From TrEMBL:
Its EC number is 1.3.-.-. Belongs to the dihydroorotate dehydrogenase family. Type 1 subfamily. FMN binds at residues 22, 46-47, 102, 130, 168, 194, 220, 246-247, 268-269. This is Dihydroorotate dehydrogenase. It catalyses: (S)-dihydroorotate + A = orotate + AH2; (S)-dihydroorotate + NAD(+) = orotate + NADH + H(+). It is found in: Cytoplasm. The active site is at 133 (nucleophile). The gene is pyrD.
Amino acid sequence: MSNPLYIQLPGLDLQNPIMPASGCFGFGNEYGKFYDLNQLGAIMIKATTPEARFGNETPRIAETPSGMLNAIGLQNPGLKVVQSEILPDLHARYPDLNIIANVAGSCEEDYVTVCREIGDAPNVKAIELNISCPNVKHGGIAFGTDPNVAASLTEAVKRVAKVPIYVKLSPNVTDIIPIAKAIEAAGADGFTMINTLLGMQIDLKTRQPLLANQTGGLSGAAIKPVAIRLIHQVFHATNIPIIGMGGVQTVDDVLEMMMAGASAVAVGTANFTDPYVCPKLIEALPKRMAELGINNLSELIQQVREGK
């Protein structure tokens, strides 16, 4: 009997569509103490930049009524450590686990450097291009807010990358469609979406922002309706696959995101409140699919495509 949860995407053969989102799972070490990571469809590891980064000053996390704000600032050990220690260790312990490497930088050259090298690891099957970073050569404007800049970056990394490129779209734009179309035309293999929504909280006693960075990215249940709307819009305007994320907590959230146009789903903030959420979703999917008359997920994806 074929696997009803199997999904095939550029570079990725997924035994199921569930994966932890980058930034919410580290490099898997902590969660590997709770369950076997081989159960996951893939993991999106923490962002990698050419050099190690400490990140922003603390406090850099604040809880909200239906999610959290964060301004971590891309803390990571840098490309050399990820290449020489982290990826080999993951491969030794989980030889069949798909790794999607999140890549970030401050200028185009940073992205090109990491994308050229990180795909050499045998377990890195795809790259997630984080284009929400400020572009220092363009006055700090995020790469993902300008269609031309986003397309130029996509073309540059496609020339050097050895694995498919999924570009992570930011919701912090006036119109996401021109950006998505420009990235697709530049040769991207897929999208991941959405990144966090820019937000702020104020401490009433100090009258100052709670985060040292003042603003941070809002994630969690509050942003799911925004994610569903943007995935639906991009799905109907483009023709490359989408890995959806943004407030996913339940198996119904997973299927709703796929009905909006996603072909796989990443889980973010929910990992912090329940470290077992991903294996629970994988276990619950077949029963809920049967209740809704869904034979397999590939068939569901095809039906959604045909309904465009």
